[in-house]
User: What shape does this take?
Amino acid sequence: MSEAVAAAARKRGERRKAQTRAALIRAAQKLLAEDRVNVPVLEITELADVGMGSFYNHFETKEDLFHVAVEAALELQGSVLDAWSEELEDPAEVFARSYRLTGRMHRAAPEISHVILSRGMSIITSDYGLGPRALRDITRGCETGRFTLADPYPALLIAGGAAFALGHAVHDDPAADHAELTDKVTEDILRMFGVPSKEAAAICASPLPSVVDLLAKVIEEPLRAAS
Assistant: This one.
């Protein structure tokens, strides 16, 4: 077998392995979104449409899988936040845009939202998703004088708690105007951080890109790169 043929075979094997892992993670996310975590491994593999033996090539236990599934959802959220605010300089605008996006994602990507919310309040201090990005933006706002806060960390806890409650509020009332509610919450938080009321209102009234388009971009780019 030539080196080129062997390399192609290895690439196919790696791609199949990655596809199996991704299928298991998607199945776990679906179960988390439906609050069905007390299921046997066999049910997970059937939902993922992979062999039972494949599960243990990737995860030791189903708890390991569910942990990775939540982290993957948080990282997807984080990637969307990064893509949406990469051109902004003002820390207040960066924070507000990420926060407004997070609120809108509960309707645009309800399954991912349910997975993230299933983690409980620990999402606020997680190393993935909104938490570390919000702390980064709040800290930068304090360092530049944009926010009049004594300590960024308590501000993160307050904003994170509001974000968690907002997610549940959006799901609890499907008829509610989730965009308007999200913008009002974001505006109040900006004022609490020390942004003047008129500025806070203007920031939260600024136009936003399509959440659906951003989600599609973040999901599809890795798939194109792997193909």
Summary: The first helix runs from residue 3 to 33. Residues 33 and 111 are 6 Å apart (CA to CA). Residues 71-219 form a domain with the Tetracycline Repressor; domain 2 fold (CATH 1.10.357.10).
